[in-house]
Amino acid sequence: MGILSGDDKLDKASQPASDNTGVRRYNERLVLQALRKARGLSKAELSRVLGLSSQAILRIVDDLEKSGLVINKGRRFGSRGQPSIIYDLNPMGSFSIGAHIGRRSLELVLTNFLGETIKSSSTNHDFPEPDKMIRKISAFVDRQRALPMVRRSDLLGLGVAMPWFISGWHDKLAVKKPQAAVWKASNFDRRLSEITKLPIIFENDGNAAALAELFVGQGQKLNDFIYIYIGTFVGGGIVLDNAVRSGMNGNAASFASMMVPPSPTGSGNEKQFSSLFERSSIYALEKLYLKSLGKKVSYHATPQMISEHPDLAEQWIEDCSHALAFAILNINSVIDVKTVVIDASLPDSMIADIIHATITHIRVMRSIEAFAPEILKGSLGRKARVIGSGLLPLHSSFDPNFGALLKNVLI
């Protein structure tokens, strides 16, 4: 049997076949999205929340239940009237595999229909070599296919989250030019597709992390937010109307390249503007350790260095948060959202300190007409990007993107 896409499953769930239109799919996906957000609703509640008729909801939910995407969770007993039957997503309705190819590690996950991680694997490297990445990813895919719970027809696809310019900034990361250039000639996407025999969805790792926060993090209670992730680099995503807005080139939230003013701490270049990457990334923290201690710090030893040299960590936090505050005020002058979510590959206490210092700087910097957004801590930490990669096939198959769904109907 071939691999069923999300649309295949929805088509098989919907009756009659002649009513296979973009509008019907859109409504089905709206129901799935509502259930994902609320984690359990009755048909009456779905009708009220989505503004669809009771008859339409009845047909959609029954069809989704037959397809295995939705399950009956039992009755809810209230104070009045008949008990309501509650429906929710079926965790075993579909599975997907995700791979986060980072500059310092490869992370892999098997994800169920709820976005939960079922299996995971992680390995470190000095720099990701395409051939090694293909071998490790394909081996992981084969192991997941062998699991009893994962029939091949249930695998929606493979999501790959990675920096768009993974071979760039090699001078900053001490990577040799020939080593970095390997990616440009690797035909990575074609070779990976051929060997795994899965549909593959590529996404910028910042957007993938934002997607994870939307699906299983703060997005459970937020529809719009700016997401900032501090890793080796600094990136993120823009979430508007329950969707990650990645832009024409998939690079809408390329925060690393944003220019920020000189450092007030003296830890950076005091005479000219620099990029957010040079101020608010873990690379910048490691650079501070090198300057202050006279030795290079491995990315994987960073947590230990933070513990051993809290004074340097505090200095970096001050500099990082000053640059973040400037960037956030400028981003929000264009996007205008209520909330900013910040997460990082750092200890929770350190992320909390960054947020507190950023809020303090924003209060000082903002003009009277500038809106100061609420700043929240992300929910997923260093796992955000790999969780997002596992959600990419799920999002592609079941997200209610009305414009995309109507494209084939209108042309």
Residue runs with pLDDT of under 50 for 5 or more positions: 1-5, 14-19, 402-411
Mean pLDDT: 85
- Rg for CA atoms: 23 Å
Assign a percent range to the helix content.
Answer: 40-55%
Based on CA inertia axes, which overall geometry fits? globular
Q: CATH superfamily of the largest domain, please? A: ATPase, nucleotide binding domain
Strands in their spatial order, largest beta sheet: 5-4-3-6-7
Termini Cα gap: 30 Å
Largest sheet properties: 5 strands, mixed
Structure summary, number of beta strands: 14
CATH first level of the largest domain: Alpha Beta
The total domain count is 3
Q: How large is the count of helical segments?
A: 15
Instruction: Give the second-level CATH assignment, the architecture of the largest domain.
Output: 2-Layer Sandwich
| Helix/strand/pairing category | alpha/beta
Strand content: 15-25%
Could you spell the SSE succession in H and E letters? HHHHEEEEEHEHHEHEEEEEHHHHEHEHH
Examine the coordinates and then state which fold CATH places here, giving the name of the CATH topology of the largest domain.
Answer: Nucleotidyltransferase, domain 5
